[in-house]
Structure formats: C-alpha cells, structure tokens
Design a protein that fits this description.
Elements lengths: L2 H11 L5 H20 L4 E3 L3 E8 L2 E4 L6 E4 L2 E8 L1 H9 L1
Antiparallel strand pairs: 1-2, 2-5, 3-4
Helix pairs in contact: 1-2
Length: 93
Amino acid sequence: MLKRELVNEVAEKLDDYYKQDVAQAVDIILAEISQALVEDRRVEIRGFGSFSVRTRKPRTTKNPKTGKMMDIPERKTLHFTMSKSLKDVLIEE
C-alpha cells in the first residue's frame, strides 16, 4: 500500500474531512514516528506492532567477487515486531 492509497482509504471512511487534511494528518503521524526512532525511542502501535532501532555490530567479511577482506562498520537498523493480534490474522489467511 502506498501513502496516497492510505490517505484515500482514510478519507473515504471519514467523509467529514478533506483529503488534504487527512494527508496532512498522515504526514504528521509519520514524522512523529520517524522522530521518535531517530531519538532511539521505541514506537508501539497497539494491535499492529512495534518499531525499534537496533545496532548491528561491526564485522569483517570477504568480498566474494574479489576475495578482498572488508570491514563493515557498526550501523543502525530498523526492527519491526508484529502484534499478536496481527500475527493471528495473518496466520488465518
């Protein structure tokens, strides 16, 4: 689902609001989630799941094409854990 599809779906269900207002609300929500993750805070949306930032350790690996050893620095990655209710719905299908 694309962001514009999400905005269209929400705007259809909320007849009293203009699509541009719904789009602005979606932008604000996504910006707040992004800001929380940048600040290393966990974001939990009940019934959907939680997002957190994890740090991958630095490591050394071999380039399979050249055979040269490479150092990969430490980096942050996004981790998503789905809620039990979402997992149950996905398993039923």
